[in-house]
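Friendly challenge for the regulars: who can give me the structure tokens for this chain first? No prize, just bragging rights.
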Amino acid sequence: GWMRNGFKLRGSVDFNQDEKTSYSLGGEYGTFGFGMDNYMHIHEYSEPGSGNRYYINDDKRRWTRDYYSLNGSFRKAFDREGQSLTLYGQYNNRDGSEVQDKTEFDTDADWNSIDQFPLLLRAVEAGPSQQVRFESDYTHPLGASGKMETGYHFRWGKEDETARTETWDYDRGEWLEDEYYYKESKYRRSIHAVYGIYSNSWKTLEYQLGLRGEYTYREVTVVNTDETSLVDRFDYFPSLHLSNRFNDKNQVMASYSRRIERPRGYYLEPYETYLDEDTRRIGNPALLPEYTDSYEMGYLRTLEKGNVSADVYYRKTDNKITTIQTVDPSTGILYFTYENLNLDKAMGVEGSFMYDFTKWFNLNLSGTFYNYVLEDKTTIENGTKSSNNWDVRAITSFKLPTQTRVQLNLSYDSPTVAAQGNREENYYMDFTIRQDLLKKQLNITFKIDDVFATRREVTETFGENFYVFNDQRRESRIMTLT
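First reply, four minutes later:
Bragging rights claimed.
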């Protein structure tokens, strides 16, 4: 189950010096709480062999955050139309913790407890963090229809964290800290970026060329072991966009761009984390971002009451962050870690259709079909996997004369290959009804997520000496009234 709570206070002051110059100053203060409860029935067995064990893992996690932020901006529009300067700054401060309380006890085949002294474990990660962000953007018109946009962006962040794990000692009647899992870590990162974008048009052709350069300095240190991981690099990201409008109804677009996807925070945690009796997670502070080169060409047709589009694309991702699972044959413990290991490619077509068939019925339909190729280096064979994947999204909206709106959302994702295994299909439907009252001064919305309780993620993962089948289902159905 999931839970959350919190409150937020936010305010801002805006000042217009004149028609072309303005300032703003704002701030925010609040708390945020988030919880997740997992109650898992686990059956372990050995083949060949006679090992057979049943146990329950009752896991409760609670995240709490106290935070405040300040922000300010300045905007100046010059006498020449289209010429402007914008400055923006922000400071964030946060302090919080993640607390995990876990109980594991052996049961019989009917899940009745047979454990007099279950494992009681408590893990705490806590510490403050600060972030600074500054942006400077300048736009300058060139000629009749051209313009040049340039800017400098800066981001800085620091985080100090202490992680510890304790188990309950029944003989002493107290919590005992496990020194192996105690870590003090420091995270520091700064990013400097400069960019330039030139755009113009020639007859019916519009074009845009861009280049962004980024310098990243990132340092992660485990204080109590004096281990340090450093990332010190420069990256560049070119882009090109072309668009030709033949008339009011037909338009063709083509583009190339290079994009970046940075690793999630917990991927970088430089220590081993206890997940359950048989599973551990080990972060990798040396992870680099993923880089994707994307080539796209599309056609857009404007209809009387909607539009239809079709696109072909090719995307290649280097430094792909891959979750790697290994097993220690002597203990049977499964380890998760992360590496910049694989490379993947996707070539396909995608389309969308949106149309108001009547004043009371609208259909929004989209889908993708593509060939997915994964150069899988997670095994000794270093093989290449591929699959033909497809997905469909449909949103149907009904407007009734009683100021009532009904919406159905349908989604389907096909099976696909993955590193060390594969993922099965996933499909679900959501339902929403909204009623406007008092001349739209009040509205009531009722929503059901996953109407038929079909939303699930089923994966198979296998490697040397292990096979994992994971069937993860969210709590369904979820009903909300707003």
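The CA atoms of residues 63 and 98 lie 5 Å apart. The mean pLDDT is 93. Your move, everyone else.
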